[in-house]
Predict the structure.
Amino acid sequence: MTLHELVSTLKVPLAKVSGVHRLMRYLAHIGFFDIVRIIQENQEQKEAYALTYVSKLLVRDSDHCLAPIMVDLILDPTISSSYQQLGKWVHDEGNQTPFAMALGTGWWLG
């Protein structure tokens, strides 16, 4: 899919197209999409984005789509409640992080 096809399908405002382009380049850089060259009907080569194995796992209606499982996991009360307890694990009663406790009070003052 070319950038033009992507922003047209998603109905992205013209002012935001450059941001989508930067996002897609970043996602390609980290391996979420592949950048490919395609030849269009007028024999012009265009840059396009192709799915990788990883991104295919999020495509709706595929046999291996993980998106519904990920949503269930995120909304699971057992998982979400553990995130709510993270603050208690990071801070003790004196409101110091374990890092600060290990180095001693006032370590940043020199």
User: Anything to note?
Assistant: The helical segments are 3-10, 17-29, 53-56, 67-75, 77-84, 86-90, 98-103. The longest strand covers residues 33-39.
